[in-house]
Amino acid sequence: MIDHTGVIVRDLAKNKIFYSAALSASGFSILKELSASVTGSADVVGYGAKETTAQGVSPEFWLSQGIPGNVPVHVGFRV
User: Fold this and answer.
1) Tens digit of pLDDT for each residue in 2-54?
2) Full 3-state SS string of 32-43
3) Which of 56, 38, 47, 53 is nearest to 15 (CA)?
4) Partners of 55 in the beta sheet?
5) What is the mean pLDDT of residues 57-78?
6) Average pLDDT, stretch 49-66?
7) DSSP of the chain, one letter per residue?
């Protein structure tokens, strides 16, 4: 099962507005926001449903500040 995935965006603030509106229809909202000082590389925003699992609430879709198309694909699997 795919646990999480995301996309790299050039303008994180602008894309937060777009994805917040687009994903709200599926029950997703921002669950986490982490700065580059925390992640060690980039500012990120994590979206997901506010359902609680045995592991807690965890974002399933991430936006990351960067240069689109200039990074490898990242997909996390839940095992």
Assistant:
1) 788 899 999 999 999 999 999 999 899 999 999 999 999 899 999 999 865 55
2) EEECHHHHCCCC
3) 47
4) none
5) 82
6) 80
7) -EEEEEEEES-HHHHHHHHHHHHHTTT-EEEEEE-HHHHSS--EEEEE----BTTB---SEEEEES-TTSS---EEE--
Token reading at 7: 């996309």
β-strand partners of 45: 33, 63
For residue 18, what are its two tokens?
Answer: 């777009």
- Listed residue (38, 42, 21, 39) closest to 30, CA to CA: 21
**Look-up of token digits 């602008």:** 14
pLDDT at residue 52, as a whole number? 53
DSSP β-bridge partners for residue 74: none
pLDDT of 15 reads 96
